[in-house]
Amino acid sequence: MLGVCVLVIVMLCIVSGHAHAQRTVLDDAQDAYRSNIRTWLGPISAIARRLFVLLAGIELAVSGIIYTLRRDSLDEVASKFLLKFILLSAVLMLITSAGYWLAPIVNGLASAGQVAGVSPVGPSGIVDLGLSLAWGKIDTSGLPITLSALETSLWALCSRIVITGSFIVVAVMVVLTWVEAYVALAGGVLFLGFGGSRMTAQFAENYLAFLFYIGTRLFVLYLLLGIGVSTIETQLASMPPAMEPTQMGELLAISVIFAVLTTRIPLNMASRISGSASFGLSNALRNL
User: Given a cut of 80, is residue 11 above it in pLDDT?
Assistant: First the structure.
């Protein structure tokens, strides 16, 4: 455990020394994932369309048998077939134009959170803010060579490492959520193909609910980023340039709370909002 702690300290010190020279590495990684994952949409949409046509054919055949056994009137059968055809056409439209209809669900919620006001909207900007707080605002230069000064230097080093780690955790959470959204928007289109039948339509509903889940996570995440950044900046404005260990501890505690809130609250709130969501697709196919 001691060796692991020493290794983490060394790596964080190395990262802190070179992060400004590589300030866009996290943004570039996120963009690389987005660009590569987008290539999935075309082939997977084609598979989803074939799956949907197969299941929709089975659904129409099953519905015809049910209408015959019930001895429904011709007008009633025609109206139900028309409504079912319109419903299935809407699902097929989502499959064929997934990049146009589905992306605004996630991007719109994320943009709403960004409008609330947050400066470092990208993961690299979040890391840079943490580095500027930890290694720019906490200054230990000019301390005398005394035991108390050594204690202050060690406490400053611990504060710098924890603050840097907290902001790295937040940046990783942003990248993780966005990559999860990219995978859902491009690869998850396959599950819309299951919307062609009453037996499998729940998979399509769960997929649409998951898109709202991801969008809600991004919305709440950016809201908390705005609050956390403004709180930390306000705290720094009230602190003197030469911080005492107690003041460093306050900044450390605020940074840790910032990381915990931005990693826990979006998950909990998104699961609460979208956990019981139902679009009624499967019920509509059963009732028509």
Answer: no
